[in-house]
């Protein structure tokens, strides 16, 4: 009897010891779903993040230097700079460089797509066609992966942001700048950047910024709009977003060399008249550009997914359905008896899957509309 009592006592004791980590009666009204953001945070940190940045601009504007300065890494360790003879024969090509960056346990898979040869030719009428094809290829690849059977490990190589470098030596936008941004503003988030801002005075930078923004508005070009702050945000964040909006287009300069200024090591450029500090907001907008990119990285990905990719996807589906209808009509006109055979030859497996998914989405939208109508009727 005493053995039974001891064993039952030990069982109760161990059970009570095992429940020390759980919430007790001393915290009434606490369910625990306030801990859900921590679960999402842990899962995101474990999985890591992906981001793809495209840099476009003429040669010699400091694109590679700026990217290396932004992420404190060397993305082009083995790059060979072509000479003048090779540049004459060079066409626009795209080079994607991927690097894994880790900071305080958070991993970022950064892919930078460079466009050497853009704007260097005498006739630049077709210089952006390769860039457009590359962006569409990434959307098409993601669409095929999303429609496939294995959707667990999809690599997202879609362009989330495009830094477009504007020359500081002109008086605004060139015809190539206008045409390129018009072609791309519906496919990617464009962030205009004035390169080599250290060759201009503050008054010249302000004048050039105003001129560029006027030309962007007059040509109907849509650049990436920074999202408005919610009413419950703190004042410091609201002021930061306000300053970022006023700084567009960002006047920047990059540097990878460390210089000593007043006993401190800073990254900058040494001139006979002094030092341009890259990370000094009084000298250029480098810090503002980096703050915009880091604090709005998630929003850039969401805009790419919900706006640009959905536009491509809807256009792709619409073209596929129209092509299938034309194929079906032509088959029926040729031979009514073999109409079903013609339909099967036109509808391939991937298009059929896409069509089924579109029908499923329509059914879900109808169900949501019916539910909303019922809720309004109950009110």
TrEMBL record:
Main localization, broad class: cytoplasm
Signal peptide range in chain numbering: none
Any GO molecular function: GTP binding
Coiled-coil features, chain-numbered ranges: 347-374
GO biological process, one term: cell division
A Pfam family hit: Septin
Protein keywords: Cell cycle, Cell division, Coiled coil, Cytoplasm, GTP-binding, Nucleotide-binding
Record domain Septin-type G: where: 47-319
Source organism, top-level taxon: Eukaryota
Cellular component annotations (GO), alphabetically ordered: cytoplasm
Site residues, Important for dimerization: 169
Alphabetical list of SUPFAM superfamilies matching this protein: P-loop containing nucleoside triphosphate hydrolases
Subcellular localization(s) per the UniProt record: Cytoplasm
Family per similarity comment: Belongs to the TRAFAC class TrmE-Era-EngA-EngB-Septin-like GTPase superfamily. Septin GTPase family.
The protein, known as: Septin
Species whose genome carries this gene: Drosophila virilis
